[in-house]
Specification:
Elements: E1 4-6, H1 9-19, E2 24-28, H2 34-40, E3 45-48, H3 52-66, E4 70-74, H4 78-93, E5 97-103, H5 119-123, E6 129-133, H6 139-151, E7 158-163, E8 171-173, H7 189-201, E9 205-209, H8 221-229, E10 232-235, E11 250-253, H9 263-268, E12 271-275, E13 296-300, E14 314-316, H10 319-333, H11 339-364, H12 371-381, E15 387-390, E16 412-414, H13 424-435, E17 441-446, H14 447-451, H15 456-462, E18 468-473, H16 478-490, E19 514-517, H17 524-536, E20 541-546
Parallel strand pairs: 2-3, 2-4, 4-5, 5-7, 6-7, 9-10, 9-12, 10-11, 12-13, 13-14, 15-16, 15-17, 17-18, 18-20, 19-20
Antiparallel strand pairs: 1-8
Length: 569
């Protein structure tokens, strides 16, 4: 019989993580530093954060990039409230995040113990599973269950709390660590047949790719399906990177970020095929989605991920397996695409690129640095297998609007979820870089979001996490300021009482960070070259780009507040 005896719970945890192949852990431990003793002799890299919120964001970025469970390790009490936003982001992004936390000792609960808090109840609403380990015999199966639940079905965050009295309580494992292979479900034959009938009958289909297709389109079967169906190909913001946006039928993003050239496609489509998408508000907003009454075929790995807002058949299954099945059925059925629809879809990216090329040229000639010109110069310089990590502020939304930014070939994309947690992209970029150390990772962020990184920027510099931060500096929270300015124009008598922006400038940065300010459009290329060279050597680089509040995509200027109702489609 196999028997392994550990001096305490955290030594068992580290052995389990090693067995699972975990190479990086993010977090800030509790005052009892036993976990550091356990980690010291392991091969696991511990990113010792200064802010548990950033630790959660970094681990979520790591999970999204790698597709495997990522680990965030924290203390107790306020540590759990600090990490809560990271757990929210992981839940909304469907990222397999495992939070391992310290907890009040069993014999001190209810005695007003230091930092005592019912952390399980706090985390349970956002986690797929939240559990407390109070006995050494329960640690081994609880660790295995946590990792299985985080990765199975629709991935998401799991919270596992280990009581403090187990730090120095022996844990015995009497069997090998159990690794449960996650099996993605095959489609129900009847549901699959109904969905396929709708797909086959469609003459003007739109294929919409969501974040659930991430890591599920290795051989490019989604693009093959689009070609075989003659479908216009779109993605949601979180689905970017799952398909090659240079495909001739790729028309950009749906909903809020859909290009104006694609409005006619959404107006005239007779079927939307949504793969791995929850069909959130930004993905279905306005003229960037089909009109009411158009059926939507949904394919998602978990029934809870399906939207009930739209008519049409649904299939609960792995989108990758369904797409492979449909590609085979297409060959057998000899279905021919509608040539007129194919021509219309193919013209959208051509016309959109012509518009964006003209806009970028105008921006480059303006003298002052403009976001359109910055993105054009950046795309020329990045290697094919780069990853762009984004925020969701005012100017950084330029890159959401295809083809102002094109996620081509093997390039990757990580964006905030529908929650758009401020600071997620800035911190997540570090996790992405550690998950893909051979890739160039660029974070496109506003100065407000960059400021949320705080002392963890020094941590990244110390650990040589070579991320390039392109900081679009409009002096603060530009989205809120732009919305307030609209109200001020409508009611000028109120005066300029509230301000969300201040004089530009990022303040002091750690000496180990490469820093430059891009003052003119002509300087963009040279400064990017220098910064990318620094990153390749393992150094954090920050390019500060002063931008005007008015430098926003045209479609954003029409938004008021969150998402006003769109009456006329």
């Amino acid at each position: 019989m196999t028997e392994n005896r550990y001096p305490g719970a955290w030594h068992a945890v580290v052995d389990f993580l090693t067995d699972r192949g975990v190479d990086t852990v993010f977090g800030l431990p509790a005052d009892d530093l036993t976990v550091l003793d356990a980690l010291r002799d392991s091969g696991i890299r511990f990113v010792l954060n200064r802010d548990q919120r950033n630790a959660g964001f970094m681990a979520t970025g790591y999970a999204l990039q790698s597709g495997a469970p990522a680990v965030c390790l924290i203390g107790k009490g306020p540590a759990s409230t600090n990490v809560l936003t990271g757990v929210l982001e992981a839940a909304a992004s469907a990222a397999p995040l495992v939070v391992l936390a310290a907890g009040t000792a069993v014999n001190r609960r209810g005695a007003r113990a230091f930092q005592e808090l019912d952390q399980v109840s706090l985390l349970r609403p956002l986690a797929k599973w939240a559990h407390r380990v109070d006995h050494p015999d329960r640690l081994v199966p609880s660790l295995e269950k946590a990792f299985t639940i985080a990765a199975a079905g629709a991935p998401g965050p799991v919270y596992l709390e280990i009581a403090d009295d187990l730090c120095d309580t022996a844990v015995t494992r009497t069997r090998p660590w159990r690794d449960v292979a996650v099996q993605y479900p095959a489609p129900d034959p009847a549901a699959a047949a109904t969905a396929w009938s709708a797909v086959r009958a469609s003459r003007r289909p739109i294929l919409l790719v969501g974040g659930g297709v991430r890591h599920r389109n290795g051989p490019g079967t989604v693009e093959q399906l689009a070609t075989g169906l003659g479908a216009a190909l779109f993605s949601t913001a979180s689905g970017r990177g799952a398909v090659d946006e240079t495909h001739e039928l790729c028309c950009g993003l749906s909903g809020l970020y859909s290009p104006p050239e694609a409005v006619e496609l959404w107006r005239d489509t007779d079927l939307v095929i949504a793969l791995g998408s929850r069909l959130e508000e930004t993905a279905t907003f306005g003229t960037g989605f089909a009109r009411p009454g158009v059926p939507v075929v949904q394919v998602n790995v978990d029934a809870s991920e399906l939207s009930t807002e739209f008519a049409g058949p649904s299939v609960v299954a792995d989108a990758g397996r369904v797409v492979e099945d449909w590609c085979a059925r297409l060959v057998a059925s000899r279905r021919e695409p509608d040539p007129d629809w194919v021509a219309r879809a193919g013209s959208v990216p051509v016309r959109a690129r012509q518009r964006v090329t003209a806009d970028a040229a105008e921006a480059a000639a303006s003298g002052a640095p403009r976001v359109a010109a910055l993105l054009a110069r950046l795309s020329e310089r990045l290697p094919a297998e780069h990853v762009l990590v984004q925020e969701n502020g005012l100017q950084d939304m330029w890159s959401y609007f295809f083809p102002s930014w094109c996620c081509a070939g093997p390039a990757g994309s990580i964006v905030p979820s529908e929650q758009t947690s401020l600071g997620f992209g800035a911190a997540a970029a570090a996790g992405v870089k550690l998950a893909a150390p051979d890739r160039t990772v660029v974070a496109l962020v506003g100065d407000g979001a960059f400021g949320m990184l705080g002392a963890d920027l020094a941590v990244l510099a110390e650990q040589q996490v070579g991320v390039l931060f392109l900081v679009l500096d409009n002096g603060g929270y530009g989205w809120l300021q732009s919305q307030w300015d609209k109200r001020e124009r409508d009611d000028s008598g109120r005066g300029d009482r509230f301000r969300f922006v201040a004089p530009r400038g990022l303040g002091a940065l750690p000496a180990a960070v490469h820093r430059a300010v891009v003052e003119t459009s002509d300087a963009i290329g040279a400064e990017l070259d220098r910064a990318l060279k620094e990153c390749a050597a393992g150094r954090v680089a920050v390019l500060e780009v002063p931008v005007a509040l008015s430098d926003v995509p045209a479609d954003l200027d029409e938004l008021d507040g969150d998402f006003p109702a769109v009456e006329d489609r």
